[in-house]
């Protein structure tokens, strides 16, 4: 499947495997963003990194200027311990070849489990799949207030 699909907005839902488990794996960009988000030594990051290893994508929705990936983590993977029931966390920025302003990312974590990853450009069309990118943190030092 092309990333993003031609023609603007669209949605891709993962096919169910045995037991109804979704089959879509994280793509290279999603994995790189999640790995970068949870690099470091916040107390919740070991559990979130373990979830990234087993997370699957239920559905990817493309808006033309970004995407939403609905995520599911198997029940046997322990939840992360956070200060709130639900948080949005994101401090990763991507520079894409051909984009003047790049893209930002946020992840929603609910009840300690990865739930959604969102990526969006700043006033530009989302780049085609395979466009080279470089990830960086928006600010240094990083702050984790959203997770407390």
Q: What amount of the residues lies in strands?
A: 25-35%
Number of domains: 1
User: Low-confidence parts, pLDDT < 50 over ≥5 residues?
Assistant: none
Please list the strands of the largest sheet in the order they lie side by side: 1-2-3-6-5-4-7
Query: With helices defined by DSSP (H or I, 4 residues minimum), what is the helix count?
Result: 2
Task: Tell how many strands the DSSP assignment holds.
Answer: 7
What would you call the quaternary organization?
A: single chain
From the alpha carbons, calculate the radius of gyration and give it in angstroms.
15 Å
Biggest β-sheet description: 7 strands, antiparallel
Order of helix and strand elements from N to C terminus? EHHEEEEEE
Helix fraction, binned, reads 10-25%
What is the 3D form? globular
Quote the distance from N terminus to C terminus: 37 Å
Mean pLDDT: 88
- Helix/strand/pairing category: mainly beta
Structure description:
Helix content is 14%, strand content 34%. The protein has helices spanning 28-37, 45-54; strands spanning 10-13, 56-62, 66-72, 86-96, 103-110, 113-121, 133-137. The protein is globular, with a radius of gyration of 15 Å. A seven-stranded antiparallel sheet has the order 1-2-3-6-5-4-7, with helices on one face. The mean pLDDT is 88. The N and C termini lie far apart (37 Å). It contains two helices and seven strands; from the N terminus they run E-H-H-E-E-E-E-E-E. The protein has one domain (24-147).
What distinguishing features does this structure have?
single chain; 148 residues; mainly beta; 7-stranded antiparallel sheet; 14% helix
């Amino acid at each position: 499947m092309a990333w993003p699909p031609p023609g603007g907005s669209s949605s891709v839902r993962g096919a169910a495997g045995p037991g109804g488990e979704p089959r879509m794996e994280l793509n290279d960009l999603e994995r790189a963003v999640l790995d970068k988000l949870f690099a470091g030594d916040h107390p919740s990051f070991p559990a979130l990194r373990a979830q990234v290893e087993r997370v699957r994508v239920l559905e990817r929705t493309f808006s033309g200027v970004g995407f939403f990936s609905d995520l599911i983590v198997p029940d046997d993977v322990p939840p992360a311990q956070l200060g709130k029931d639900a948080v949005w966390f994101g401090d990763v920025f991507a520079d894409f070849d051909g984009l003047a302003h790049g893209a930002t990312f946020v992840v929603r974590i609910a009840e300690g489990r990865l739930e959604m990853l969102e990526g969006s450009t700043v006033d530009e069309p989302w780049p085609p799949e395979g466009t080279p990118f470089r990830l960086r943190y928006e600010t240094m030092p990083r702050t984790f207030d959203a997770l407390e």
